[in-house]
Amino acid sequence: MINFESGKSYAYPFPYMEVENCFDQETLNNLIKEFPDQSKQPVVMGGRKQTNLRHHNVDVWKDVAPTWHKLFNWLNDDTVFHSIFNYYIDDLIHWDCNLTNESSLRHPDGDCFTHVDWSIANDGYVREIHRDTDKRIWNFIIFLSDKDWEGGDFVIHSSDNLTSYPRQIFGNDVVHAPAVKTIEAKAGRGCFFLSTPNSYHSVSKQFNTKSDRKFIYGSYSYRNGDVFNKRIK
């Protein structure tokens, strides 16, 4: 359902892929049309509003958001999961990953799970330089709106000058994690990345917003704690 074949893969500063047109036009239009009202959601994670689409509530969206229901079920399939697992197998081995060929997204017995949420950001949204939680395996962001604001860009950072891999980087330490790639919003554009211990990224502060920054955030995660045993250089 996501058109990975059209993507461009990069190994530096960590494994990531950019896809210009993740979906065919009809699917993209339907995802935008079915995007739910977020006005009553609390503000979280640097200033965005979100609604989670999870395995235990996905059927609630079957009639009101059928394209989202289809997308979640496509992602939440072991065939897709293992294709991604195998694509990054060398990197997973390098970081001493706890996944095996028996790892599964099956609910409730699988050792991994899928997360997808609808997100909206407006003026003031910003994310510090960080890597995602230790349970994350693979993450992605797909934009559902063209850039209609200033800032609000997804930024990839180098860890070359870091001596360790903290979850977040603040203050004077930000000079040790310089930006190496900036990805601006465009409807249908996605960035997918392995959540390695050095997968540092941020979002520059959003302002002068004329229309909402709508996007999909998603991930695969490990249920049993830290997915990587190696978290040093």
How would you characterize the overall build of this protein?
There is one protein chain. It contains four helices and 13 strands. By secondary structure, it is of the alpha+beta class. It has a single domain, classed as q2cbj1_9rhob like domain (Jelly Rolls, Sandwich), CATH 2.60.120. The strands form two sheets. The chain has an eight-stranded antiparallel sheet with strand order 1-2-11-7-13-5-4-3, with no helix packed on it. It has a five-stranded antiparallel sheet with strand order 9-6-12-8-10, with no helix packed on it. The model has no long low-confidence stretch (mean pLDDT 96).
Number of structural domains: 1
Radius of gyration, taken over Cα atoms and rounded to an integer in Å: 17 Å
- Along the chain, the helix and strand elements come as EEHEEHHHEEEEEEEEE
Unreliable runs, pLDDT <50, ≥5 residues? none
Name of the CATH architecture: Sandwich
- Give the CATH superfamily: q2cbj1_9rhob like domain
Distance, first to last CA: 36 Å
**The level-1 CATH class:** Mainly Beta
Helix- and strand-based class? Answer: alpha+beta
Oligomer: single chain
Number of strands: 13
Helix content: 10-25%
| Overall outline | globular
